[in-house]
Amino acid sequence: MVLVQSQSDGGGTAAAAAESESSDTFVTGDDGVRKWEGELGRNHVTKAVDYPVSPPVGGDHNPVWMNCNGDVYTDEINDTNAVHSLEHGAVWVTYNASADEADVDALAAKVKKTPYTLMSPVDGQKDPIMLSAWGHQRTVSGADDPALDAFFEKFVQGEQTPEPGAACTNGLSR
After folding, report:
1. Which one of 55, 72, 117, 164 has the fewest beta carbons within 10 angstroms of its own beta carbon?
2. Considering the chain, what is the average pLDDT of its residues?
């Protein structure tokens, strides 16, 4: 595994981040999946949360989840609701304006067929297409990237799920 800095690190080196016991960072595995190394709160809050990465991979969140039964949102959604969906075992597919339109359409079709997934744009993310699960994240090159299916297989209701089997319906739909 390789240690990398999170997007929120204010500078310094990865080695310096590794030396700091309280530093929250990602550790990247050989498969390209970044695993969050740090505490992810699970409190229900009704205020905004300042997440250390965008899109977030966990932490305190709104008491109401976003519907994540293959739901595709064309507008940005509230991070705190989406994080609650991740707690339920969902994978959140996000994209920014740099993502290829054909890839966005193909990803939407895949998400619509996959329970415990949701998709939305996130303008502030650093890569065109990203996949997030509770405590895990990776970038994919497009809808035909084999890492997409591997991420879905491992993380949709995967062992990282804090609340396996929790609902992905009857939450927010916008």
Report:
1. 164
2. 88
